[in-house]
Amino acid sequence: MAETSLARAARLFLSRPEDDVARLRLYEVLSGAELVLPLQGEVEGEDVTPETVEAGDVPHVVAHDSISGFAGGAPRPTATLSGLALAQMLEGQGVGVALHLDGLADPLMVAPEALDWLARNLAGEPSRVEARPVALHPPKGLPTSLLTTLDRRLAQGEGLARAAWLAAVDWSDGSRGHLLAFVGARPGSEEPLAGGINAAVALSGAEDLRLDVTFLAEGDPVIERIAKVGLRFDMEDPTETPTGPPRLR
Description:
It contains seven helices and eleven strands. By secondary structure, it is an alpha+beta fold. It folds into two domains: 5-121, Trna Endonuclease, Chain: A, domain 1 (3-Layer(aba) Sandwich); 133-234, Alpha-Beta Plaits. Strands 7, 8, 9, 10 and 11 form a five-stranded mixed beta sheet that branches. Strands 2-3-5-6 form a four-stranded mixed beta sheet. A two-stranded antiparallel sheet has the order 1-4. The longest helix is centred in the first third of the chain and has 13 residues, at 20-32. The radius of gyration is 20 Å and the shape is elongated. This is SseB protein N-terminal domain-containing protein. It comes from Rubellimicrobium mesophilum DSM 19309.
C-alpha cells in the first residue's frame, strides 16, 4: 500500500524537528487527513469511546492514518473523522493523539497543546462577501508556502470539483486580493471545500493575505475570463467520472 501523505509529512517533520515549515506542513496535512479510531466496545447511537493510551501520564487517543493498520487482526469497531474534527473534539480536555502511521514503527505523539493550537487557529468559518470582481489578473506575489499548501489541500479534495482556478482580483469595493474559483463542485461540497481553503491559508504561514473563494457552475462565462489569466488546479478523480504552532513531542 502506498504511503499516506500524513506519513510522508511525519517523516519530514521527524527528520527536521526544529523546522517550522516542516511542522506547519504536518499540521496542515493532519488537519485534512481522514483518521481511523479504534473504539472501546460497539457503537451505541451517537456515543463512541475511542481507545486511549497513556504517555507521560497524559491520555492520548489512538488514531491510524489508514484502515491497513488493522489488517490481520480480529474485526473491531472503528470511527473515521478528520484530524481537525478530532482536534476540535479534544480541545481543552488535556488529551493528545497517538498517531499510528503506515510505515513508521512508533506512533507519533501529538501533545494536547498542539491539538488545542490546531483547533483554535482553524476554528474561524469563511466569511461571505458581497463585492463583485471587476478585473482579473495572473496571481502575483503569493508565497511559495501557500501555493504548495493549496496544491496539497486541493489534492485532498480530489473528486469534489472538476477544477479550481487561482487569480488576482480587483473588487468592486476598491479592494484587491486573490480569488480561488471552484468549477463544477459537487452538491454539498461547498462548505468543506471553502473550509479547507481557509485552513490552507491559516497553516501556510502567510500573513495579511486575502484569498476569497467562489463556486462557478459549468458554462459560467466567468470561467473563460479566469482561465485566461489564472493558475489551474485539476481536481477530477481519475478513477471516477466526473506565531508558530507548539512543538510536537
